[in-house]
Amino acid sequence: MGTRSPSIPPGVAAGHPATAAAGLEALEDGGTAADAAVAASLASCAAEVVMTGLAGGGHALWWDAATQRAHMLDFFVAVPGLGEARASPELLRLQVPFGAELVHYAVGIGSVGVPGVPAGLGELWDRHGRLPWERLCRPAIRIARDGVPMPLAHALCLAMLSPVMTMREGEAIFAPDGALLEEGDVLVQPELARAFELLAEEGPRTFADGTLGRVLLELTEERGGSITARDLEGYNPRWVAPLEGRYAGHRILTRDGLTPLLPALAALPPLAGAAPDARALGLVRALAGPERDGHTTNLVTADPDGNVCAMTTSLGLGSGDFLPGLQVHLNSMLGESDLLVGPLVPGARLPSMMAPTAVLDEAGLFLAGGSAGGTRIRSALVQTLSSVLDEGLPPQEAVDRARLHPVGRLVHLEPGFEPEVAAALSEAGHEVRTWEARHHYFGGVSLLARTGAAADPRRSGTTLTLS
Predict the structure, then answer these.
(1) Please, which residues bridge with residue 444 across strands?
(2) Residue 63 in contact with residue 358, Cβ under 8 Å?
(3) Which residues of 108-237 form beta strands (DSSP E)?
(4) What are the distances in angstroms from CA 175 to CA 98, 172, 326?
(5) Which residues pair with 103 in a beta bridge?
(6) What strand order describes the sheet that includes 452-455?
(7) Is the pLDDT of residue 292 over 70?
(8) Which residues have C-beta within 8 Å of that of residue 408, sequence separation ≥ 6?
């Protein structure tokens, strides 16, 4: 008999303590990495509602230990409008402060795309899960009903997004006593708990032929949105082959997003042993590209059999519309102008920057991970992967390391870079903006590797290991 390849230790890395705990509970109950990912993702839709939600979309990478192969699951938001000709709905345009800049967004019912999260989680569970569906919904029900403390990173993000998050029903959720929730305050969503109970009872097709879909269609009709019954009934997740490249002696498996990961890794010079200024210049040149934004979360799960799942989900900014009586925030993907790079064909998937990723060496799967953060997904992953694979840093040290992000000639720097870095960038013709503190602007990486687990402090991330 052959020797089994070394596997990633079983556990969870995620962007919120409650998300990670839900995934670990599933593993402790004998669940697979798929069960853990579903439970954790549903929990994130209750605990991380400033980052993601049931009415969003996402992408996942599944590593199958038995076949030693990776598969990508696309359950991102689709363009609505199948079966009915409707006037283009109006969008509400606003500005949101992001660091030192004002970012322009369009929200409202006209920005809502066809949700994919429940269907995608259902497909992953149906193909690779072991525990009952209802069991995987329990942590999310508990979190929404009983409440969960707001971590610092999520409270800061809520403050930034408050113009949207407190629209309509959102005010009662995020400013229940007239003041916005802050770090340590308890986020309670009893009506959202009812939405998860419906999801547990009706199954993952609740948007297609259940209560959540019926309420969404009623709201869309009332406010003049574009989603139709055919959109919801016809939505299906799909499995696709990953893209493959090489970096620092490793195989890299990922997806082709709007800001693709593989070309940036290929453009990197060797960084091991490089001087700080040369390292920064190499990263900036490899990461040059347009600025796009988004609010996302990422999680990674691994089970004792060696199966691993990396998953990224998002609502966009959020439309400011909530399903009445259910506190489900709708996505705003059609209002994210940088996602609208081609014609809007009803039924087609919108593009995204998400990049769940697997790294293989000669022994098999070495690392799986992903990041939140729009364009900063690529920046965060490139810097983390180069730190681990090229420079040999432990995973958590690599994730904690100060990051940069170029936007045209402007380079954003987190504090922690050596003094010569800013000087070298300026001499090379860049404008440099150094941030006062580590910030969720620079992404939110979570990963599991044979050499350790890591979750991003920029998102109040947590890692938990199955004992």
Answers:
(1) 372
(2) yes
(3) 148-149, 186-187
(4) 21, 6, 17
(5) 96
(6) 243-247, 250-254, 357-361, 364-372, 444-449, 452-455
(7) no
(8) 291
What does the DSSP 8-state code read for residue 376?
Answer: H
Q: What is the pLDDT of residue 341?
A: 66
> What stretch of H or E contains 308?
strand 308-314
Alpha-carbon separation of residue 358 from 63, 307, 371 (angstroms): 8, 12, 12
The amino acid at residue 104 is H
CA distance 392 to 396: 12
Q: Where are the beta strands (DSSP E) in 343-451?
A: 357-361, 364-372, 404-407, 410-413, 431-434, 444-449
The per-residue pLDDT for range 243-290, each reduced to its tens digit, is 999 999 999 999 988 778 999 999 999 999 999 999 999 999 999 865
Q: Which of 275, 260, 243, 252 is nearest to 389 (CA)?
A: 252
**Is the model more confident about 95 or about 101?**
95
- Collapse the DSSP code of 142 into the 3-class scheme (helix H, G, I; strand E, B; otherwise coil) and give the result: helix
Phi (first) and psi of residue 250, to 5 degrees: -120, 150
**pLDDT 10s digits, 82-91:** 887 666 666 6
Joined tokens for residue 73: 């699951």
Contact 370, 446 (CB under 8 A): yes
Cα–Cα distance list, 246 to 56, 251, 261, 262, 355 (Å): 31, 5, 11, 8, 15
Token pair listed for 55? 């009415």
* Pairing of the two strands 57-64 and 308-314: antiparallel
With helix as H, strand as E and coil as C, how does 1-68 read? CCCCCCCCCCEEEECCHHHHHHHHHHHHCCCCHHHHHHHHHHHHHHHCCCCCCCECEEEEEEEECCCC
Helices (H), 203-274: 206-209, 211-223, 229-234, 261-267
Largest Cα separation within the chain, whole Å, is 66
**Residue 99 CB neighbours (<10 A):** 15
Spatial separation of the C-alpha atoms in residues 398 and 416, rounded to whole Å:
13
Is 259 within 8 Å of 292 (Cβ atoms)?
Answer: yes
Q: What are phi and psi of 57, to 5 degrees?
A: -150, 175
Cα–Cα distance for residue pair 179/297, rounded to 1 Å: 25
pLDDT digits (tens, 9 = 90+) for 43-92: 999 999 999 999 999 999 999 999 999 999 999 999 999 887 666 666 67
Domains, the chain, in order of start with CATH, read: 11-465 (3.60.20.40)
CA distances from 61 to 125, 367, 444 (A): 13, 12, 17
Q: What are phi and psi of 404, to 5 degrees?
A: -125, 165
